[in-house]
Amino acid sequence: MVKKILGYSYIYLILLLMYIPILVLIVFSFTNATYIGTWNGFSFDLYGKLFQSEEIMIAVGNTVIIAIISAVCATVLGTLGAVGGFYAKRRSRAILENINQIPVVNAEIVMALSLVVMFVFIGNNIFGGANLFSFWTLLVGHIILAAPFVYLNVKPKLQQMDPALYEAALDLGCSPRQALNKAVLPEIIPGVFSGFMLSITLSLDDFIVTAFTRGSGLLSGAANIETISTLVQAKIKKGPIPPEMRPLTTIIFLIVLLVVIFISLRRNKTINVKSMKRRKLREKE
Amino acid sequence: MKFRFQRKYLCIPYFLFLILFVIIPIFFIIYYAFTDSNGNFTFDAFVTFFTTTNKINVLVQSLLFSTLNTIVCLIIGYPISYLLSNPKFNKNYVLVLLFVMPMWINFVLRTGATRDVLTWLGINGGSHPYIATMIGLVYNYLPFVILPLYTTMLKLDKSQIEAAIDLGCNRVQVFTKSIFPQSVPGIISAAQMVFMPTMSSYVIPETLSEGKIVLFGNSIYLGFANNQWNSSGFMAIVMLVIIAISMLVTRNFTEKDEGKEAATW
Questions:
Q1: B7, closest residue in chain A (CA to CA)
Q2: A147, A176, A184, B138: which could join A78 in a potential S-S bond, CB 3.0 to 4.6 Å?
Q3: Per-residue pLDDT tens for A234-245?
Q4: Residue A121 and residue B28: Cβ atoms within 8 Å?
Q5: Residue A195, helix vs strand vs coil
């Protein structure tokens, strides 16, 4: 009993410490004080200011656009890579997997810098000093950040799959394309989905690759593309987090919380379904 | 001859993408590291790096910070993962999700929040840069330690632990002889998740120490901001070498842990 209380108090103490900064921002998003620590009475003023701030809205829009486009591209590329690699000869698969491992273990900043020097070199020597940095270079950076993880998420699902499935579909009259769509894809879809979600979170959270590879474009127009990360970084370099960004934390927190609740519900459901199936099997026996 | 579709061709786009944007850029880094601004071959960046005390200091400081951060995260995270792997404490996975949840809130925002709260408490980067940076680092990397450790702990061989108890081990012996050796792969992969990212982190030391502490990542970033491709290229190579060394050292310990983050979804 004592052991249990001690264990719980340790877990909750660390959880509390981890959440303090976020919770403080959330609490002080409901007052209009300039600095955290001073309470000017309850108000929703900052929420109004957040939605009026063009700068922040542009950054949020950019972040979401980049996250979705890069996640879709990374998921398609990574999944095709994993499926193709799975059916390729052993040696070519080994090569593919080793290269795939490079961005996974590499430091983000090294990866970002390597892309930048390549684009600078190509711009200087092939396009006569042109500045290549734009939305497209940024997109490449985000895809390379995420695609290897999609590959790693899809691969185990392929290994769990019945290896004869594709041939069986062909024998039953499917074209190769139909066989992939109707037989292979349903088997690996959980891996594809988790790869996609991971790609989204990697892109949303990214600062280094964005800061290195970005150029002008998207909602920022002629200026450098700002995402939430780069905008917040520019602000906190000069001083405390601007008051109108506190409500942003609250909103992000709520969205994440909803997603987490959704996942745990789904997880409990699948666990229940599994145990039901098992029970039924046992009854049959 | 007619083109005939084969399944393995599906990986060609991804393969080309990797070659173009992973392999070739690394060669460009090597090219820049060993040339001067006019494109002539030189060892300048190499010589400057190893003769400037400033750069060596940055390297040593980064290694120290990374080691300390890894150790602190492991000390805090190990008991948590152990408790979480016990179904008595963690009935329906919610606690694990709570520990992982901060990872999904924008980390720059979190870092700023940590800095502001620490300033409010009187530990600001101006007066205590080392403490503030360490707190920020631990705060950010703790979830990355808990997740792989938790996955390993779930796989602990319970019967071996029980056998150890039956054979007369006391609690300390059970831990040192059974639980700890079994959890070594988790410790290694947790350390990998913290050590290198700490070295190459930019936002956290920059924000929390208010620019007073320069880690390897900051140094590369500065080179990038000032268009010094040659020196920052060389630093990136040093980083690559350190990564390669750490991979070789830990290679024998790690088991295959594909999709280590996939477990969350």
A1: A84
A2: A147
A3: 998 888 888 888
A4: yes
A5: helix
CA distance A109 to B242: 14
How would you classify residue B227: left for phi > 0, otherwise alpha for psi between -120 and 50, otherwise beta?
left
Q: Tally the domains of chain B.
A: 1
- Which range of residues forms the domain containing residue B88? 55-254
Q: Which residues, in sequence order, are CB contacts of B177 under 8 Å at separation 6+?
A: B164, B169
Summarize pLDDT for A78-96 with one digit per residue, the tens: 999 999 998 888 888 899 9
Give the residue numbers spanning the domain of A81. Answer: 56-243
Residue A154 belongs to a domain with what CATH number? 1.10.3720.10
Cβ proximity of A143 and A73 under 8 Å: yes
The partner residue sitting opposite B203, judged by closest CB among A10, A155, A207, is A207
Q: How many CB atoms lie within 10 A of CB B71?
A: 12
Question: Is B42 in contact with A123 (CB distance < 8 Å)?
Answer: no
| Of A175, A108, A61, nearest in space to B239 by CA | A108
**Chain A environment of B107 (Cβ under 8 Å):** 205, 207, 229
Rounded to a whole number, what is the largest CA-CA distance in chain A?
A: 75
Gap between the Cα atoms of A173 and A235, Å rounded: 61
